């Protein structure tokens, strides 16, 4: 499918690391480390068009003008709980970013998101908000997160995921055509239980060894 707002970050290192993550025998320590590393690579691409401001800087030779990102106008919103696994990867590149937390679980019958926790920092209209969740499956949780962030007037929203399914990307794009999506891989489809296939299982369970 041709998705207007989707970028699959097609990099050999990402493919290599993701292949190890897919392996059912990869343990939680290595799984966490690999997710952090892939998030770093995704962040490099997802932040490519961030605006910069001119600043004067004194080099050892003379004063010159450089450019800096206003990272205090960046907020990361990990969707609990699996999104926490991507948070440090982004913070390693934009350490002054704010963090907002959104707790959502998927109702097993309807597959719709149910909110159980929300704590956002103050937003301004020109904030850049990165919503992160390893699995963009049905897209319902991501759509819900986008809606909650937009309620604060934010217009610059970027979604980052490890894996995406066509059904989920289509679902998000139809309702939020202004939101960019960056992912490490577009998988084949969803199965009858709305899991991404071939996928890598439940990212939260593998991160935190809860199964």
Automatic annotation (TrEMBL):
It catalyses: UMP + diphosphate = 5-phospho-alpha-D-ribose 1-diphosphate + uracil. Allosterically activated by GTP. Keywords: Allosteric enzyme, Glycosyltransferase, GTP-binding, Magnesium, Nucleotide-binding, Transferase. The keyword Nucleotide-binding applies. Its cofactor is Mg(2+). 5-phospho-alpha-D-ribose 1-diphosphate binds at residues 81, 106, 133-141, 202. GO terms for biological process: UMP salvage; uracil salvage. Binds 1 Mg(2+) ion per subunit. The magnesium is bound as Mg-PRPP. Its EC number is 2.4.2.9. The keyword Transmembrane helix does not apply. It holds the Pfam family UPRTase. GO terms for cellular component: cytoplasm. Pathway: Pyrimidine metabolism; UMP biosynthesis via salvage pathway; UMP from uracil: step 1/1. GO terms for molecular function: GTP binding; magnesium ion binding; uracil phosphoribosyltransferase activity. Residues 8-210 form the Phosphoribosyltransferase domain. SUPFAM superfamilies: PRTase-like. Uracil binds at residues 196, 201-203. It is an enzyme of class 2 (transferase). CDD domains: PRTases_typeI (cd06223). Catalyzes the conversion of uracil and 5-phospho-alpha-D-ribose 1-diphosphate (PRPP) to UMP and diphosphate. Belongs to the UPRTase family. This is Uracil phosphoribosyltransferase. It comes from Marinitoga piezophila (strain DSM 14283 / JCM 11233 / KA3). The gene is upp.
